[in-house]
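Quick check before the chapter quiz. The format below is the same one you will see on the exam, so make sure you can read both the input and the output lines.
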Amino acid sequence: MTDFDKKVCEAFPGVVVRKDLVKEVKGNAIVPTYVLEYLLGQYCATSDEASIQTGIESVKNILREHYVHRNEAGLVRSTIKEKGHHKVIDKISVTLNDRADVYEATFSNLGISKVLVPSETVKQHPKLLVNGIWCIASLEYMPSEDKNQCPWVLDTLKPIQLSHFDLELFLNARKQFTTEEWIDLLIQSIGFNPEQFGERNKLFQLMRLVPYCERNYNLIELGPKGTGKSHIYSEFSPHGILLSGGEVTVPKLFVNNSNGKLGLVGYWDAIAFDEFAGKQKKPDKKLVDIMKNYMANKSFSRGVETLSAEASMIFVGNTQHSVPYMLKNTDLFDELPKEYHDSAFLDRLHFYIPGWEVDIIRAEMFSNGYGFVVDYLAEILRAFRDDDRSTDYKQFFTLDSSISTRDRDGIQKTMSGLMKMIFPNHDATDEEVKHLLDFAIEGRKRVKDQIMRFDSTYSKPDFKYTGADGKLYTVKTLEETEYPRFYYINGDNVPVENATLKSSGEVSPATETVIHPEKMKAVDLPVGNFTYPENSKGITFKRLLIPYLREAKKIVIVDPYLRNYWQMRNLMELLQELVSTNDADAEISIHVVTMADDFNPEKQTEFLEQIVNAVMPAGIQLTYCFDQTIHDRDITTDTGWKIILGRGLDIFQNYDGNNTFSLQNSMQAYRACKSFGITYIRIPEETEKQE
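Here is the expected output.
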């Protein structure tokens, strides 16, 4: 146990848990993280290893004896019948049978319904009426001669969530941590290792929590696959719900006019829309209109009656193109359906998380340290919803008068959420406030700048603010400094200086991050066969392959042996060279054909998927397939080149890939090569057209 983990355990006894234990106890139980950590918090909230192991066994036994697997539902029902009563862990939803004037419960995994529920239980836990909640319930079996009467009787029901917490104790314990330590604890509580994240990426992770602690907060995150966009809304809190797949209806989300039943916004703190992007989707225009009003005014209409709600809205989706491509051709909302690609709707968004900046989740990113039981943190965040910290920054800074009311609201609500999470004791310094203010402004500016690309009716604000000393500060988005020639439109070519990225404090020269190396001069590329003896050095993909691939838009790579780590790294390094020599807005389709690994196909697929996700933000659309009949190794382009590779991409001898300070690790030219041959063939134009 590290010193930091010891400090966490001492400051928050009984409400922290070692984060790697969840995987250990989960097994094949399909339950949210907060359910498992609730149980772990009951039995494993300690630093004593022996007690932890005992607690793990206790939790495993509870899950083994009481969690209902769908395929074992019949056995559990039989157990209840034979024993007379039994406790089960299941997701329970309740409906009102208005004909019989009773509440009836449905047990999702157990497969039973029409179980009578006392009205008092429903009043205590109204979320039972909407989509259901996970509970520990005691059931009895009491058959009756009346065939219409359900034989299942609910004895007790307890939602799996924290029963209480002491806010004052929490606030006092927070004082024991520095700002950096506290942010690391929050990141660790989410389940990530803070050492794997930079300061800016930590804030992006915390931004995903703002909808839980800030009422009526509207957040959008668009980016590549695999960054964990939806995970936190499905697994983190019992007060949030993730809507996956399918289209959401007005009755489900707001109110059913036929029966007056309130929708999801009336019961949940945060509602996340997964897979929100997709131009092919056609959402109901009525839904979009109602959402516009709700997101702006916190209310919606039901006939002549206007109702209010506090649920925050989160929209997450995947992008298909690189950032420079979107900036050059459309905007950063390019992937949204037409109905949502509307300035009135988008202007209601308070913050845009640039998903292309968020790291793709890797195994080493998960934490094995101590963090809050997620349900404890969820309750803290919920308690913070009553607190308004939106104007705390005003004692240090003043926003520019050109910033509109809606822009100002977006900035202030983001500030409020971050200040409550990071500085609950109101003890932030002016520098710390400035750091968060820059970040909040950038997120709202990203929204406004993109709207103005397709709606010129909006006036252009100056996203500036003034310090107490009169000093003026200007905020830019990272895309603005990285891709100025694509970012600015309508002739507004503002020069970009090598400025400091205000939200991270890291120097980010635009010339270093945007401008690619100059292309090689056009030459007559050689054709024919070339061989290289063993231990040759100075051989690189940039020299061997890139001149032949540079202008290609479609490339097929055939290599039967892409399975081990170093072989996959070779593929990744080739793709990196392509990225570095192509225009920032270029789009390349690459198809990889290889043989499936008979011994470890899962690892092979994992490597390939990681590469797919890694290169997508750079404009490379990588696909792959498995073919057990291939033998030859070659690369074919749509520009008329076929390159036959004797050894495929595996041309380098073994080297220490883990040694950061080795030139061999970072530079191909310093690696010794295996003996290999390579043949360059120019495909006749007629053949090229036929293919």
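If your answer matched, good. The chain is about 35% helix and 20% strand.
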